[in-house]
Design brief:
The protein is elongated and about 70 Å long. The chain has a two-stranded antiparallel sheet with strand order 1-2. It has helices at 9-22, 25-34, 39-53, 57-67, 72-88, 120-135, 153-159, 162-175, 181-190, and strands at 97-100, 116-119. It has 195 residues and is mainly alpha-helical.
Length: 195
């Protein structure tokens, strides 16, 4: 809808407001710029090509080709965005930052602990690796430390002592120290005797 002359400025300005409310100032500026008649269409085209470039050459080329119908300015913007993302090897927009409990609450970590700032992809990877690690930590009855439906944090805290849970976490952070250095540092700052 952002490409409809006259009407396109409305969703662009609404998106700018939503982005600003979320604190995503880069997206807010891009959306506000996109509301400018004529100029904004090139910005939108470039933004679409940049997103597509993050998903592969074929997708970016398809978007770039489709944008040719919008005129030379839009096609030039899409090409420039595509070239920039290819050169940088990454998408144009910065990753969202998430906060991580290096000593997870479900394992008994302090809810008010210092939180580690991690890019969203890194945070997702950390939890995937931690879940695999905790699945292998079992007791004599076959209970494991991975949180799942039917194996809540309360169940895990009941089946394993705090010392056992901390030992499992310390083992994880030692194993993945190079992959997750910030979370590892924050965990061992809380529990220096485990390093």
């Amino acid at each position: 809808m952002g490409f409809i002359p006259g009407l396109g400025a409305i969703p662009d300005l609404l998106n700018a407001g939503v982005s600003a409310a979320r604190g995503d100032w880069g997206a807010a500026a891009t959306n506000a710029f996109a509301a400018l008649p004529g100029i904004g269409d090139g910005a939108k085209a470039g933004k679409m090509a940049a997103k597509a470039a993050a998903h592969g050459d074929e997708a970016a080329q398809a978007v770039k080709g489709a944008l040719g119908a919008l005129g030379q300015g839009a096609d030039d913007a899409a090409g420039a965005a595509f070239a920039g993302t290819r050169k940088a090897g990454a998408s144009v927009a910065p990753q969202q930052i998430e906060k991580h409990h290096s000593d997870p609450k479900f394992l008994g970590g302090d809810p008010k602990q210092k939180l580690t700032s991690l890019p969203k992809d890194t945070h997702t990877d950390l939890h995937r690796d931690l879940n695999k690690h905790l699945r292998d930590k079992t007791d004599a009855a076959g209970n494991h430390m991975r949180p799942l439906r039917g194996n809540s944090g309360r169940d895990i805290r009941r089946n394993f002592s705090r010392e056992e849970r901390l030992a499992a976490e310390a083992e994880f952070y030692k194993k993945f120290r190079d992959k997750y250095p910030d979370a590892t540092r924050d965990f061992f700052e809380q529990h220096p005797g485990l390093e």
